[in-house]
């Protein structure tokens, strides 16, 4: 199986930390069993030159919103819009296999709302979620979800 790829945006370092933990976990799994794919990561920021994605990948996006209670049109995505623009660039969204969301469960209905909106907007499955920096169980669960989703698409 080809290496998996995760594209993400991180404003506070939580998503970056989670992505790095995913890379480490994938490497451990690959060392035990080469059938488990390695993982590469790419962080998107305001300085990123947009390119055309030609291979399948996953996206991880935190939730930063402004306004409203999470259910109305007055809720606006803040600080992560560049990732949405990257997905929207040319045919990049067509290569996306799944969206992974993160956030703070204290925000109730707004928890992972950006990822859920991306899922709907780009017609890509909402694959998984984790809170804040996630934990070891989240890393294991999400890596396995990524592997399974990749197998599913390749069948």
Automatic annotation (TrEMBL):
Q: Which residues form the Flavodoxin-like domain?
A: 4-155
Protein's name according to its UniProt entry: Putative nrdI-like protein
The Gene Ontology terms for molecular function here are:
FMN binding; oxidoreductase activity, acting on NAD(P)H
Listed PANTHER family: PROTEIN NRDI
């Amino acid at each position: 199986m080809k290496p998996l790829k995760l594209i993400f945006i991180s404003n506070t370092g939580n998503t970056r930390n989670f992505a790095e933990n995913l890379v480490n976990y994938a490497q451990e799994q690959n060392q035990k069993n080469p059938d488990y794919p390695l993982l590469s990561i790419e962080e998107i920021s305001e300085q990123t030159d947009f390119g055309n994605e030609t291979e399948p990948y996953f996206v991880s996006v935190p939730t930063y919103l402004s306004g409203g209670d999470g259910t109305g049109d007055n809720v606006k995505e803040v600080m992560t819009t560049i990732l949405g623009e990257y997905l929207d660039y040319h045919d990049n969204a067509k290569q996306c296999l799944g969206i992974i969301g993160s956030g703070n469960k204290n925000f109730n209905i707004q928890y992972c709302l950006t990822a859920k909106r991306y899922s709907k907007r780009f017609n890509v499955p909402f694959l998984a979620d984790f809170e804040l920096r996630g934990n070891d169980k989240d890393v294991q669960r999400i890596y396995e979800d990524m592997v399974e989703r990749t197998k599913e698409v390749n069948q």
